[in-house]
Predict the 3D structure of the following.
Amino acid sequence: MKRISLTQHLIEEQRQHNTIPAELRLLIEVVSRACKTISHAVGKGALGEVLGTSDASSENIQGEIQKKLDIISNDILLEANEWGGHLAAMASEEMESIHPIPNRYPMGEYLLLFDPLDGSSNIDVNVSIGTIFSVLKAPPGMANPTEQDFLQPGRQQVAAGYAVYGPQTVLVLTTGNGVQSFTLDREMGSWVMTDSRAQIPEDTKEYAINASNARHWHPPVSRYIDELQAGVTGERGRDFNMRWVASMVADVHRILTRGGIFMYPADARDPGKPGKLRLMYEANPMAFIVEQAGGAATDGRHRILDIQPEKLHQRVAVFLGSKNEVERVTSYHNEA
Ligand code: AHM
Ligand code: MG
C-alpha cells in the first residue's frame, strides 16, 4: 500500500487545487502535531496521573467542572499554536475570552477555535474522546483581534477537523475539498491517509440521541423518534438501531464511517438555552465536515453553517448526518 502522509496530502492539495495556502498548511500541521501530544497524554491514563478533575474550584465558562485532561489539552493547543506566525488569535471552549497571539510573536491571518477535549464525561472511563477544531480567516485590516472578529457564520470556515482518541487515533480533516482521514502510526509518529474521500450514505437505519431527555423533547423530535422506534410495523416500515457514545467526536466518526443521524436537540427545560452543544467549537466544524462528506446539518430549522453567531460560547441544537433523515426531522420542525 502506498502511504500518503498528512504533509504530502496538504502539499498536493496546495499544488492541484490551490485551496491550502502555505500558512494554512502550517497551521493544520501544528494542530495535528498538538493532537499527537494530546493522544499521548490520553493514552497514559492513570499512569500519567492525568485523570480526574483539576481541583475543586475549577470550572469553565459553561460552569462545567474541568477535568485535568481538559486543561492539559487546552494548554498543549495554545502553546503549539502561539509562535508559528500563522494565527491572529485563538478561542477555546475552555476559556472565557479569546487568546490573542502574544506581542513577541508575529501575527498571522487566521483564527483558530477548538474544543480541546470533547466528551469529558468519558475521560475517566476509557471511552473514545477527541479534539475538534475550526479555522476562520481574520477580517481584512484587523489590527487587534476581538471576540467580534470570530463571529462569522460557519460557511466561512477555511478548514475544520477533529481527532478521535479511540482504539486508534484518527484525524479527520476538510479544507473544503472533501473529507480525508489519517490514522496515527504510533511507531513512526506520523499521520497516514486511510480514507481519501469519506462519504456519508444518504439513508440510514441508525440514530443517536440521549434518550434520557425524552420527557423534555419538543413535539417534532418526539414525533420523529416515535416513528423510528415504531420499527418495521410503523410508518417507516423498518427497524432502526440506536447508538450513543456521549462523545460527539465518536458519534460523528461512526456516522462518517457508516452513516446515521446524530441529534442534540433544544428542549423544554430552558427556553433561553438552545441545546447543549456549542456553535463555534462543535456544531460548525462538524457541520462543515458532514456537508463535505455529502451529509446535512441543521439546528432543526436552518442550515447550521448559515447561522450568524452572536456570542463566542453560543449553544445550538444539532441534527446532523445522513441527508434524508436530517431533512425529514428538519421538515417536522418547519411544519410545526
Ligand atoms: P463536553 O464538550 O463538555 O465534553 O460536552 C459535549 C459532549 C458531546 O461530546 C456529547 O455529544 C454530549 O456532550 C453528551 O451529552 P450528554 O452527557 O447529555 O449525553
Ligand atoms: Mg465538547
